[in-house]
């Protein structure tokens, strides 16, 4: 059986990342830097000898484009790929599209900080990280993890908060520690799993 390989990649920088806007389920494109980050992810994985059997991504174009660019560098265009909104970014509700500084002016520094960094307090009309995990984790358990445990080398390209949901389980984070777990855009995190789905090894290419 092939190794139980799971690689997570946060999409490259988006236009709204650059503009300091809350993005959520809105669908801006990658910046030029984001395109380069996506290509670099593919180059780094290829340089280390990785290939994949299946990929998963969200319904948002910044993640899909990152995946496509990385796969092109890997020479794996046409890899079987599954898109699902369960892997979409956290929905920021009424904050979506707002500049983060403008949001602080409107609601106050402390309130915006709570919405961004608390585990279970959602912004108006949106999701908390707890809500995002409740959406993302069942999909991981029923659709992604079985592929990995069957020996399919699996690549997941998604978003900061949807990937944190997976990392919370993989790395056994608490609600407090997961909020501090940083994920850089376009940087692969490479897990090898044991047969019981726990981590055998992890390599974060961010260092």
UniProtKB/TrEMBL annotation:
GO terms for biological process: gluconeogenesis; glycolytic process. Substrate binds at residues 10-17, 23-24, 62, 89-92, 100, 116-117, 160-161. Coiled coil: none annotated. Catalyzes the interconversion of 2-phosphoglycerate and 3-phosphoglycerate. Homodimer. One of its GO terms (molecular function) is phosphoglycerate mutase activity. It catalyses: (2R)-2-phosphoglycerate = (2R)-3-phosphoglycerate. The keyword Transmembrane does not apply. This is 2,3-bisphosphoglycerate-dependent phosphoglycerate mutase. Keywords: Gluconeogenesis, Glycolysis, Isomerase. It comes from Ancylobacter novellus (strain ATCC 8093 / DSM 506 / JCM 20403 / CCM 1077 / IAM 12100 / NBRC 12443 / NCIMB 10456) (Starkeya novella). Belongs to the phosphoglycerate mutase family. BPG-dependent PGAM subfamily.
């Amino acid at each position: 059986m092939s190794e139980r390989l799971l690689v997570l990649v946060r999409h490259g920088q988006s236009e709204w990342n650059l503009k300091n806007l809350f993005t959520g389920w809105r669908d801006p494109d990658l910046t030029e830097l984001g395109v380069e980050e996506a290509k670099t992810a593919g180059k780094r994985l290829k340089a280390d000898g990785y290939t994949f059997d299946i990929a998963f991504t969200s319904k948002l174009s910044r993640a899909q484009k990152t995946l496509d660019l990385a796969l092109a560098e890997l020479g794996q265009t046409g890899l079987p790929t599954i898109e699902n909104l369960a892997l979409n970014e956290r929905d920021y509700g009424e904050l979506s599209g707002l500049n983060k500084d403008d949001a602080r002016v409107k609601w106050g520094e402390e309130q915006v900080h709570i919405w961004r960094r608390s585990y279970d307090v959602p912004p108006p009309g949106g999701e908390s990280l707890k809500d995002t995990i409740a959406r993302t984790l069942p999909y991981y358990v029923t659709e992604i993890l079985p592929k990995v445990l069957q020996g399919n080398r699996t690549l997941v390209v998604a978003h900061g908060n949807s990937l944190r949901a997976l990392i919370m389980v993989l790395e056994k984070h608490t609600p407090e520690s997961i909020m501090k777990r940083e994920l850089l855009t376009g940087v692969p995190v490479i897990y090898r799993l044991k047969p019981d789905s726990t981590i055998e090894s992890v390599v974060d290419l961010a260092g």
